[in-house]
Task: inverse folding
């Protein structure tokens, strides 16, 4: 696994028992390539195991939180930590997703801008979400002829309700920060300049509590969330693997790159 000192796509720092993880590819709006996925897995695994860390805060370098998959890399057929190319491989959940979900420390997402595709998934994996007034959320997978990762299936319905989750997943349409707060996707919508101070203050408040009790409190919440994320995640990756081979997926990506309306044919 990648060592914390060798990170290229993230910034990782610990102070006063809070680990701050910053997605740091601003020139690509923090879109995720293979290296970035691997570094997310490494950073959250490290934070979970570090006895000095009691809370994790994740955000993005402005202007975005995370623009999802790096589409240019997607066109090469390389999907980080994602669908295996060999049909005989046993499908498993995305390692980066499970590293966030399984992190034993409370996780706060400070969503400072666009959180779309896997960027919205990353926000969903957090225990608490705070949003800048500039934030935009979208489960864009359907627009690319794909399905979401485990977050959209496992966590989104418990936050916003089954019908609203279906609307967001089936349409792929974006919502702004005000709407996200109204439906319960985020706890607060804040002025952009207030986002990080508020998130840091909340993280400090959490980190001041007894770490063992915090760990069990988080485990209790996890046990209360219906469904098994490992099972749901493995199924999602198997379906994504199938959909990557479809013409509709290729059309979804090509139309995005060419800035035109897609024409889907069901194949």
Result:
């Amino acid at each position: 696994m990648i060592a914390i000192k060798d990170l290229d796509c993230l910034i990782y720092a610990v102070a006063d028992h809070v680990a701050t993880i910053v997605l740091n590819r601003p020139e690509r709006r923090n879109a995720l390539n293979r290296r970035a996925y691997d570094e997310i897995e490494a950073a959250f695994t490290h934070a979970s195991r570090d006895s000095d860390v009691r809370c994790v805060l994740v955000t993005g370098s402005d202007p975005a939180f995370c623009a999802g998959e790096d589409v240019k890399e997607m066109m090469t057929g390389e999907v980080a930590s994602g669908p295996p190319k060999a049909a005989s491989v046993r499908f498993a959940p995305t390692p980066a997703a499970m590293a966030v979900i399984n992190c034993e420390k409370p996780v706060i997402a400070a969503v400072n801008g666009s959180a779309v595709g896997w960027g919205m998934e990353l926000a969903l994996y957090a225990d608490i979400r705070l949003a800048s007034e500039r934030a935009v959320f979208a489960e864009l997978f359907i627009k690319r002829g794909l399905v979401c990762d485990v977050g959209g299936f496992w966590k989104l319905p418990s936050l916003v309700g089954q019908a609203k989750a279906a609307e967001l997943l089936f349409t792929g349409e974006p919502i702004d920060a005000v709407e996200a707060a109204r439906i319960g996707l985020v706890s607060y919508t804040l002025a952009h300049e207030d986002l990080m101070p508020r998130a840091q203050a909340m993280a400090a408040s959490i980190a001041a509590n007894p770490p063992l009790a915090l760990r069990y409190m988080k485990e209790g919440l996890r046990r209360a969330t219906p469904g098994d994320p490992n099972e749901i995640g493995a199924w999602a990756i198997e379906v994504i693997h199938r959909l990557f081979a479809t013409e509709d997926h290729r059309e979804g990506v090509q139309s995005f790159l060419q800035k035109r309306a897609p024409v889907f044919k069901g194949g």
DSSP finds twelve helices and nine strands in the chain. Residues 78-88 have pLDDT under 50 and may be disordered. The CA atoms of residues 252 and 258 lie 10 Å apart. The chain has one domain: 4-192+227-257.
